[in-house]
Fold this protein.
Amino acid sequence: MHKGGVMHITILGSGYEGITISVGLAVFGHTVTTINVNPTRARYLQRGVLDMRDEELSSHMKSVLREGQLRFTSELEKCLSETEIVVIPEVPNSDSDTMPDKRALLRAAECLTGIMGSFSIVIVSAKVPSGSCHILQDWLNETIYSETVNVVAFPAFLGKKRSLHGFLHPERIILGYEGAQPRRILDEMFANPLANETPICHVSWETAEMMGAELPILSPAVPEYPEATHKLSTSKESTSWRVEIARGSDFLSTNEGNTRRSSKKIQNVS
């Protein structure tokens, strides 16, 4: 599927966080496809037209588009049949002042059901309440009829400032997951030489979610939290990152029948 550490990654959404993560991963050498349900906007983005004021992001986006490392499309099903990792950078109705409810993450992920995908990792970089990734994992196990898809919490922007520079030069990377299966793929995803001196903290879903939510009980100094530090990676090949808030209006829909099936399961989440 991939060669020499280059992975095929699909980003679900092209708000500011989605585009920033897409461009950052493409700069790191991965092959990235970003989904926008609006075909017109997807075409504009594919031409390098960024409808946001961010010169650094715009410049790097045009560069990785020219190199073929990044593309924008509205064709979700084809992307999921070829990708190894899916990233959810945004959830509906989230903003800088309000924490979305747990159902919001399931609504953002419902497009993954009913499609024969090749992905084995779903990364949640959006700001979500504690416990959301656990619920998403259980829901994917039920709706995809497989336990081979692993959910990972990745707060990509740990701080007030969200930017491409912060993504490319993080102080640390926080990865929350359960079990040993995701580790090999995550090590490859974050093995870029630009970040190989950055510490990676392997923690639980809940710890990563709380750090992404910037709860007051959490300090920027990861070693103060036993749950985070007892799994702190000591590998020389480790890496690092930042994630913070998820906004954007371009969320993914799915076919009507699949939406009905998904919504029944979403309603059962408390």
Notes: The chain has one domain: 8-262.
